[in-house]
UniProtKB/TrEMBL annotation:
This is Alpha-amylase. Coiled coil: none annotated. Residues 50-513 form the Glycosyl hydrolase family 13 catalytic domain. It comes from the Bacteria. It comes from Caulobacter segnis.
Amino acid sequence: MSGSTPWRGMLAALCVCGALASAVEASASQASAAQASYQARKPQDEVIYFLLPDRFENGDASSDHGGPDRGPLVDGFDPTRAGFYHGGDLKGVTRRLDYIQGLGATAIWLAPIFKNKAVQGAPGHESAAHHGYWITDFTDVDPHFGTKADFKTLVDAAHARGLKVYMDIVVNHTADVIQYRECPDGHCPYRGVADYPYARKSGAAGPAINAGFDGKDFSKLKRPDWAYTPYVPSGQEQAKAPAWLNDPIYYHNRGDSTFAGESSLLGDFATLDDVFTEHPRVIAGFIEIYGKWIDDFGIDGFRIDTARHVNPEFWQAFVPAMLARAKARGIPNFHIFGEVFDPDVAILASHTRVDKLPAVLDFAFQAAVMDVVSGGAGPERLARVFAADTVYEGGETGARQLPTFLGNHDMGRIGWFLQKTQPGIGDAELLARATLANALMFAARGVPTIYYGDEQGFTGDGDYADAREDMFPSEVASYNDNRLIGTPAKGPRSAFDPQSVLYRRIAELGRVRAATPALRAGRQVTRVADQQPGLFAFSRLLGGAEILAVFNTSDKPIKANVPVEVGSESWRALHGACQASVRAPGSYSIELAPLDYMLCVSEGQP
């Protein structure tokens, strides 16, 4: 034999197995700790990274066409055109989790991943569903992005490292499948309830249909042709899933929305089929659809597309059902926030008060911070937005759950806005103003939301597809010639650079925020807000701690004294050159260069 005895070999094997078992146990313990940690975080504790899977990373080229190559006007894949699929997918997102987490993000918001109608639009004006908002199958992943198994891999991998995953969901509409016989060109003017009521009594103009329907007794609602005559084109009768979505009775069928008045709720959103969300079958159907995604994947939240275009009663039923479903799945801090595309605080807050949405995207913050950092308004403009926080459901506490952002996939990027408002702006100033905007977002109340690519200096050429550049080497000419913030680079390139200047600056802000509870949950008090570009200072107060955030929005240096809590005497810097002590109780001296900021913290007396 080899000189060893059997029992020694067995002992060695036992030692190895024991070591492996200990390693597995330790790994399981770490995973359990990470899971407990991320689930305990409240919505205001997060930093959200919003991305479109199609534009982020191509992890599997075999899914580029969503099946066989049928040509761009059928399968929608054309990486040379801004409005078509470019090849990004869920495997690509999973591959780049290190990059996302390194930026300081704690939650990933994915644009819709559900199966879409690949191409829509009149001949010569087609575009593809790279954005994910033309859904046909609410129960499955779009094959351009991968499979349910790929999604599970992504969610599990994110959770293992303490990252949350938010799904972007749609209730207001489906893809454009239903057509109207009266409108062969596909565009029908909106027909309102007064002129084309659901119930017409005998003798009224037009046929007597659905007599007796009062908007509540849906059992009497038998036909969908009160305004137009809807039909489903041949071959598309089963285009949607679940199957009940193929019945025109579950749609409003009133023609194109004007996005005003009644039509804002009942009209077709740019020809997309507007769902009859008042109907009990629809309410129950969507509760089951989206509840199952929670059950099956353990996701952590929903961003709700076009929330303002759905009747409040739907949300009053849907939101509690989703929160209950999440809690039953062991998800105590499920975050739901709606898109209400309006900068008016009163309008935004009404959707938390009336619709009972837990939060809405803070378009008021976006509009105000853009005015302030561009030099178009003094910081008092932003202070007024914060002063109105009490109008949200839950008051100031509720406002801390509002996702704040600088730009998005619809309106465009912060870099584009700055170039529009400051024609001829130099590179250094552009970087300084973009940095200032991010610092304001990370220091102020709310949930900072980074639009993918902003951390690499993307600026875009405008809104919609012009603001959806590829993170991987692009073939779109109009993307490759864009000006970038913080670098002179141009042309096709992989943009996952953790050393880029904005990535590093945002990552620093993320680290400071993560380590400073007052920046996440502290009460916010405005200290100084100039009416013209100049000084903006506010405190975040939590327990005995005070964080003083000070910003110079002007192009001139500032020296000033800022009021603080009387008990805040000893200070240290989180960012910038903070004085170690107050000049007098309740008075703190600051000095800032143009377009600069500092974050100072006091735990009270020395």
